[in-house]
Amino acid sequence: MTVEHDIEKTPAEIDGLLCAYLLDGEGGGKALDWTGVRAWKPSDGLLWVHLDRMAKPARDWLLKESGIAKVVDESLLADETRPRILTEKDALVVFLRGVNLNPGANPEDMVDVRCHIEANRIVTLRDARLMAIKDLREAIDRGAGPKTSGEFLVRMADRLIDRMSSVITEIDEVLDDLEHSVQQMASAELRNRLRRTRQISIMLRRYLAPQRDAVLRLQVERPTWLSDLDSAMLREVADRTTRYVEDLEAARERAAAVQEEFNYQISERMNRTMYALTVVAAILLPPSLVAGLFGINVGGMPGIDNNAAFWIVVAAVAVLAVVEYICLRKLRWI
Question: Quick one: 116 and 192 in the same domain?
Answer without folding.
Answer: yes
